[in-house]
Design goal:
InterPro entries: METTL16/PsiM, METTL16/RlmF, SAM-dependent_MTases_sf. Keywords: Methyltransferase, S-adenosyl-L-methionine, Transferase. S-adenosyl-L-methionine binds at residues 92, 127, 150, 240. Residues 1-28 are annotated as: Disordered. By secondary structure, the chain is of the alpha/beta class. It has 2 domains: 13-335, Vaccinia Virus protein VP39 (Rossmann fold), CATH 3.40.50; 346-486, TATA-Binding Protein. It has helices spanning 2-14, 30-36, 59-74, 89-104, 133-142, 153-164, 167-170, 197-201, 247-250, 262-265, 270-284, 299-311, 367-380, 400-408, 471-486; strands at residues 45-46, 52-53, 122-126, 145-150, 173-177, 234-239, 289-296, 316-324, 327-335, 346-350, 353-358, 384-388, 393-398, 440-448, 454-460. The two termini are 35 Å apart. The chain binds S-adenosylmethionine (SAM).
């Protein structure tokens, strides 16, 4: 018994609801709600130890709870027809609050992308569903504006009803139907063909064939490319994707009755394929969005999708865990904009000498691996590097073009799935070092601190070089890449 309690306490501690979430300190009070809303009364039950509860396997009960929470706590009128996916308000609020954290952080440079009306945050909700929950919450909590897309008639119809039932936010939300007949998933029927198969075939090709090694690549209607207009700018996109690969898989959790039709829950290749397509689309829309984000249902997909992100040259990846009760979901966010380094984690004594710490390294990752990582980072951009494993340094020479390549992220940075096996015991061949006047030499050194912690120092060797100004930005990018490769990642 004591063991069970301990286990429960451990689980409760594991993750917490977002601190700004209305329900973090005050979970819904069912008896109080039932006293205020008689329509909720029939769904109120008490467990054997007297705890008020509802039957989570009863769709009508969960829908009524969502309806009254949206009304009571957010002044939102809301309804969905039988069988449509029923969102839980505390859980969906977590995603909105995490987005607010991202937007208010100074992780990426401000104001390089913003909508016409600078005072309003503008988001794109991919697959808003009949419930339209994210735009309703985002607009009522923070006054954000939204374009909310979906592919099915019922989702579009009911999302519009839900928006129009709330005049205080209806001006802020545009419902957009995704126009396409080009689905091979067999999930869409009765859609007006708008893009022909040839037109879909002729959509811009992706810079990297991310699906080359995937047999379950996305086959379905457009997601962002073909839906977002050329001149549109958004602060973020968000998505609760169809998680499952099949209806059987979707019906595996008999303990809840959140509803959900096959169109809402299932797509060919599951969430991995769906989000991979969002990543591919994001490489073409990197100037239209400040942040791309998605919810992920399976932790195992997080690592693989994060690897894909670094392959396509994003500048930053952020992840978080959304916990509600015993359900965990993950949030994944990325951007292609230049990052702004937090002053606390990097020292800037002068711009020709910088350093940062790598903390929380795994036992298998020592100074030599990090040194290899430094070398790989610069080599992948075509820069000439010399690694000296006796002094734990990498000397780098760079032309203006090389620096530009790093600054623009033209090349993939580091493939996280690649294991760098130290091959050189000692290398000090400096024959290819050429510090001529248009080349700027950098020296990167790695120092062991305490176990699991390394100090990485960088210095400009040729201070008169006109390129020395790019050093701080390049060094920050190196820090981000090494942090992501070697350190435990968090929000
Ligand atoms: C899991 S539901 C999410 C609904 C709602 N956002 C929520 O969180 O409850 C996924 C939604 O994505 C929609 N969908 C599937 N493919 C889509 C596409 N290519 N573009 C836009 N929406 C899509 C489905 O119709 C469905 O409404």
């Amino acid at each position: 018994m004591g063991g069970k309690n301990k286990k429960r306490k451990r689980e409760e501690k594991r993750g917490t609801i977002h601190p700004n979430n209305k329900y973090s300190e005050n979970p819904p009070d069912f008896p109080h709600l039932a006293s205020l809303y008689p329509s909720f009364q029939p769904f109120l039950q008490y467990s054997h130890n007297g705890h008020p509860r509802i039957d989570w396997t009863d769709f009508n009960a969960t829908r009524e709870l969502t309806r009254i929470l949206l009304l009571h706590d957010h002044s939102l009128n809301w309804w969905i027809p039988d069988g449509q996916l029923c969102p839980t308000v505390p859980n969906r609020s977590n995603y909105i609050h995490w987005l607010q954290d991202l937007l208010s952080s100074n992780i990426i440079v401000p104001d390089t992308i913003s909508s016409a009306d600078h005072s309003k945050v503008r988001g794109f909700d991919i697959g808003t569903g009949a419930n339209c929950i994210y735009p309703l919450l985002g607009s009522s909590l923070f006054g954000w504006t939204f374009v909310a897309s979906d592919v099915t008639d019922v989702a579009i119809q009911w999302a519009e009803i839900n928006v129009n039932s709330n005049p205080h936010v209806s001006e802020l939300i545009e419902i957009r139907r995704v126009q396409c007949n080009a689905t091979t998933s067999g999930l869409l029927q009765d859609e007006e063909p708008v893009l022909s198969a040839t037109e879909v075939e002729n959509l811009p090709k992706l810079p990297l064939d991310l699906n080359a090694c995937e047999h379950n690549s996305y086959r379905g209607p457009p997601i962002l490319v073909g839906v977002v207009r050329e001149d549109e700018k958004f602060d973020f996109c968000m998505c609760n994707p169809p998680f499952f690969e099949s209806l059987e898989e979707a019906g595996l959790n008999p303990k809840t009755a959140c509803g959900g039709t096959s169109q809402e829950m299932v797509c060919f290749g599951g969430e991995k394929a769906f989000i991979t397509r969002i990543i591919e689309d994001s490489t073409q829309l990197k100037h239209n969005f400040r942040w791309f984000t998605s919810m992920i249902g399976r932790k195992s997909n997080l690592k693989c999708l994060t690897s894909k992100l670094w392959e396509v040259g994003v500048t930053v990846v952020k992840t978080t865990e959304f916990v509600q009760g015993r359900t965990s979901r993950w949030g994944l966010a990325w951007s292609f904009l230049p990052i702004v380094q937090h002053k606390s984690s990097i020292s800037l004594p002068n711009k020709n000498n910088m350093s940062f710490m790598l903390e929380g390294l795994q036992r298998k990752d020592g100074a030599i691996n990090v040194l290899e990582g430094v070398k790989s980072y610069f080599s992948l951009h075509g820069l000439s590097c010399t690694m000296d494993t006796s002094s734990f340094t990498v000397d780098v020479v760079a032309t203006k073009d090389d620096c530009n390549s790093i600054l623009k992220n033209e090349m993939p940075i580091i493939n996280l799935s690649t294991d760098y096996q130290p091959t050189e015991k000692k290398t000090s061949d400096r024959s290819n070092v050429n510090l001529s006047c248009d080349r700027s030499g950098l020296c990167i050194s790695v120092f062991q601190q305490i176990p699991g912690t390394l100090l990485v120092k960088g210095s400009v060797q040729d201070k008169n070089s006109p390129l020395s100004g790019a050093f701080s930005v390049i060094f920050r990018k190196l820090e981000e890449v090494l942090q992501n490769k070697f350190c435990t990642r968090s929000v």
